[in-house]
Amino acid sequence: MHEVALCSAIARIAHATADGLPVERVRVDIGHLRQVVPDTLRHCWEMVVFDTLLEGATLEVREVPTVIECRSCGASTALQELTLVCSACRSTDTTVLAGDELNVTSVDVTVG
User: Fold this and answer.
1) Which of 16, 32, 43, 74 is the S-S candidate for 66 at Cβ 3.0 to 4.6 Å?
2) Domain at 97, CATH number
């Protein structure tokens, strides 16, 4: 279950970013190609931050769909499946534009 390792890394980033302040919320963008199950990630988050300075902080996950661009015809396609095939011309000569992200986008802290 790689979600535990991901949560541990996210928690380290949030802890360092908060610089000792209480954390309310951590937001992450996770691309579809990362094959992370958002509900499992949220569950693992609760386990990873239990009894730490991050306990009680909410993990918000934004799922980023996979989008490819075809080098043959120039079409952009948002994918529902993990096949990197252009929906316009069926070419496999494509470039991933979005969907492989794994970013901590913000850490909300309580000040004062």
Assistant:
1) 32
2) 3.30.2320.50
CA dihedral 60→51→34→38, nearest 10 degrees, is: -50
Residue 112 lies in a domain: no
- Residue 52, pLDDT score: 93
pLDDT of residue 73: 94
Amino acid type, 26? V
User: Is the pLDDT at 77 greater than 80, yes or no?
Assistant: yes
Round to whole Å and give the CA distance between 65 and 76.
12
* Domain, as residue range, for 56: 2-17+24-106
d(CA 106, CA 93): 34
Confidence of residue 81 (pLDDT cuts 50, 70, 90): confident
**How far apart are the C-alpha atoms of 49 and 26, rounded to whole Å?**
12
